[in-house]
Design brief:
Helix content: 10-25%
Number of helices: 6
Oligomer: single chain
Order of helices and strands: EHEEEEEEEEEEEHEEHHEEHEEEEEH
Number of strands: 21
Largest sheet: 7 strands, antiparallel
Structural class: alpha+beta
């Protein structure tokens, strides 16, 4: 479990975590506001002097927003006395303070300028993005056990301003979106490293693999779900074979990126080719005889999309 917020701590799930959640259960809504959280994890890799791939760090990307679920406008501060809500760069435990309180002098609450707290007035149904951040984790044991983000957001009731503000305390326990484990990714990198890189004669083999396929499956990643779609017919086969067999491939190191679209080519029940369309004009190709990430010309991606029926669905 990772805690993000006022009095928030990023920790592995210890024995007392269950008791903590019983004492401080989820409380996502109060006084017309709902706290919403999205979180996902990615991993970064490096290499040893011998060239072997190793896990380097994990990153938790999260977005925190407020939604007005009432029937009236709500004004809420979105910064803490002129300071934006941020994630400490040097914090390995995931601590982020989202508790907003009034300025004090000698421990006593003072009056304040609204502008110092960046107030936002939300109409019914409107959202305000409080924070979009990233937490770097360099402890592998912690990264492996992290499966939840806990976000707390509170606004002190001690404010004495010129207009009424929302006050209260919200708390959400949000699962991190499913992700591939570092060990699975490292195994892929190991397999790719053992395969020869693409050479000109392999483009002929690539084209032949596409022509030999009798089934094409499109995998679209939509949030937590992976949707598989079998393309009807084989009208895609020859045009794709000609395209993929006739372009230049520039090998590059493993690109630490994913896309939301993958193509799997099957001959019977055997997958003969995997193709992933990556950012930055890159393709990821896996086959028995070759594999890796390659830079291609900028027009290749749109051409692939144009040749495969229903690829945009």
């Amino acid at each position: 479990m990772i805690l993000v917020g006022p009095l928030m701590h990023a920790v592995t799930e210890p024995a007392y975590a269950t008791d903590w959640k019983k004492e401080m259960p989820s409380h996502p809504e109060e006084n017309g506001l709902r706290l919403e959280v999205k979180a996902r994890m990615a991993h970064a890799y490096g290499s040893t002097p011998e060239g072997a791939s190793i896990w380097k760090e994990s990153q938790i990307f999260f977005q925190i927003a407020l939604l007005n679920i009432s029937d009236a406008p709500i004004t809420v501060p979105t910064s803490d006395f002129g300071k934006p809500l941020t994630v400490p760069n040097n914090n390995q435990r995931g601590d982020v303070n989202l508790r907003i309180g009034p300025p004090k002098f000698e421990g006593k609450t003072t009056v304040f300028a609204d502008a110092s707290f960046a107030p936002v007035t939300l109409a019914p149904g409107e959202r305000a993005l409080l924070l979009s951040g990233i937490q770097i984790i360099t402890n592998r044991n912690f990264a492996d056990s992290a499966n939840e983000v806990s976000v707390w957001f509170s606004v002190s009731k001690d404010f004495t301003g010129l207009r009424p503000w929302w006050t209260g305390a919200l708390r959400v326990y949000q699962e991190i979106e499913p992700h591939e484990s570092p060990d699975q990714e490292l195994e892929k990198l190991k397999i790719v490293a053992q395969r020869p890189q693409m050479v000109p004669e392999m483009t002929t083999k690539l084209s032949a693999l596409v022509r030999s396929a009798d089934r094409l499956v499109i995998i679209s990643h939509q949030g937590k779900n992976a949707v598989k779609q079998v393309v009807e017919g084989i009208s895609w086969r020859q045009p794709l074979a000609d395209l993929l067999g006739g372009i230049a491939y520039e090998p590059q190191g493993h690109l630490f990126a994913v896309s939301n679209r993958e193509l799997e080519f099957y001959r019977g029940d055997k997958r003969v080719l995997f193709l992933e369309m990556l950012p930055w004009n890159s393709l990821r190709l896996y086959a028995e005889e070759f594999g890796g990430d390659y830079v291609v010309s900028a027009d290749v991606g749109p051409k692939i999309i144009g040749l495969v029926p229903d690829i945009t669905k």
